[in-house]
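Something for you to look into today, if you have time. What I am after is a single protein written out in full by you. I want to see for myself how the chain folds. Could you add the entry underneath, on a fresh line?
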Amino acid sequence: MRQVPASVGLVLLTARGYLLWLVVPYGLLTWLVYYWWARRASLGQCLGWFDLNLIAFLQRVVLRYFIPDPTAYWIPSKEMSTVNHRVRGGLI
């Protein structure tokens, strides 16, 4: 398993934590308006897709100089209904 330095991991975790406050409401709205019927994706799959692409964005764009071999990959929206993410719960 590839690992990033602890300081870069802390920056990644902190940035993701703050950005999820923007991504989750946006993901909920886009799921309500479009993705639930166009991609046949559940809310959990939609939010998981947004989260996985957020991690890929942080690793491949924002922290690209500090993470030489990123572990996250972009997932196209057409594959949203196949996303298997940690997001699970009663309503999701």
About this structure: The chain is about 60% helix and 0% strand. The longest helix spans residues 6-38.
